């Protein structure tokens, strides 16, 4: 290769390395873009009613912040209190388990007794997991400041993008060649429509699943109905994985209350997911970009491995945007146009059909 090509290759590798090192910041920026895109629809509706853009953006941001403050106030304090109750109930539960195992040993014949684990063995096996969960629980709260700073960064970027989005969009379009800038702006508009439709569908799913979960948990008399329902609604934003994670808190709480309630909660949540898959998703998600279920699951696993929980949360919007760019740029503008000029020239060339076997003779070849 020539010297210029080597320099270009080195610059590309260095750029990829830098982008990989700041991948978490790029994900936070993308999260701010998603929030700003969704809130921009509300700002546009407020501007149609006569409000100025600055006031409309401030009102939209206020609604966004109030929602998260209310959600945190509803969910965090009850679960902190519940964790304190768990530290008191776990020793009682172990004592009940010991009494139950000893009573079962006295009733069963001698041969099957060796298949029953002793309470001491169970305790020794549980202790490493309990210590791991305890240490990670407090490490989570030790990183609370970093999480708060990331949320503050996302909020500031969202406000900046929402107040005056035109310069940022224009600067991104300028990264493309001049002949492709109009096309890039069209693709950005399609990405905006797809993200807004996705956010609208997800919000409807979150509200419906949260309300249905609240009713079901209230009928089952499971404690912390409001907090568990709020978590079920919020985790609905993470397909496939979110509903499974939302099952863990109410099922654990129901297990401490009565063992049969845990099974009832499991059956109820499975029924909710069936209701969502067969009724809610086809009705709400009809205007979204179609994503295959296998692609959804694999994208969540891959982004979770490389980028952690933030990648898991942003997997679907990243796939939506990536799918649109691949379809528009790679498929329509490159692959579909590949060889189109040669085919059109061949179709326009004069041909002559002669007797005998069907064959096409090029007049240029005859002459």
TrEMBL record:
Pfam family for this entry, one: AI-2E_transport
Domain of life: Bacteria
Membrane topology according to the record: Multi-pass membrane protein
Keyword Transmembrane helix: yes
Keywords noted in UniProt: Membrane, Transmembrane, Transmembrane helix
Subcellular location: Membrane
Protein name per the record: AI-2E family transporter
Transmembrane portions of the chain: 26-43, 55-76, 144-166, 187-212, 305-326
């Amino acid at each position: 290769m020539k010297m210029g090509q080597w320099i270009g290759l080195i610059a590309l590798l260095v750029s990829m390395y830098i982008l990989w090192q700041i991948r978490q910041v790029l994900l936070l920026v993308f999260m701010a873009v998603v929030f700003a895109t969704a809130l921009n629809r509300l700002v546009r509706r407020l501007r149609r009613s006569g409000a100025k853009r600055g006031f409309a953006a401030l009102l939209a941001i206020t609604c966004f912040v109030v929602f998260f403050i209310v959600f945190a106030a509803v969910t965090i304090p009850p679960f902190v209190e519940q964790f304190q109750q768990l530290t008191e109930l776990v020793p009682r539960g172990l004592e009940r388990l010991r009494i139950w195992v000893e009573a079962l040993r006295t009733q069963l014949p001698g041969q099957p007794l060796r298949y029953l684990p002793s309470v001491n063995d169970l305790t020794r096996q549980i202790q490493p997991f309990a210590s791991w969960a305890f240490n990670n629980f407090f490490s989570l709260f030790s990183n609370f400041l970093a999480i708060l700073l990331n949320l503050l960064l996302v909020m500031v970027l969202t406000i900046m993008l929402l107040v005056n989005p035109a310069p940022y969009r224009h600067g991104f379009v300028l990264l493309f060649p001049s002949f492709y800038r109009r096309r890039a702006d069209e693709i950005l508009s399609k990405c905006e429509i797809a993200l807004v439709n996705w956010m609208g569908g997800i919000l409807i799913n979150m509200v419906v699943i949260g309300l249905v979960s609240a009713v079901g948990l209230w009928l089952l008399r499971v404690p912390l109905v409001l907090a568990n329902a709020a978590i079920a609604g919020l985790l609905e934003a993470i397909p496939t994985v979110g509903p499974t994670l939302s099952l863990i808190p109410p099922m654990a709480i129901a297990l401490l209350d009565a063992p049969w309630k845990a099974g009832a909660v499991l059956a109820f949540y499975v029924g909710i997911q069936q209701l969502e898959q067969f009724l809610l998703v086809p009705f709400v998600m009809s205007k979204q970009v179609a994503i295959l279920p296998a692609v959804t699951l694999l994208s969540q696993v891959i982004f979770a491995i490389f980028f952690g929980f933030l990648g898991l949360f942003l997997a679907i919007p990243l796939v939506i945007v990536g799918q649109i760019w691949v379809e528009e740029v790679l498929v329509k503008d490159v692959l579909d146009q590949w060889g189109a000029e040669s085919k059109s020239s061949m179709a326009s060339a004069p041909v002559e059909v002669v007797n005998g076997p069907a064959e096409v003779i090029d007049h240029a070849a005859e002459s």
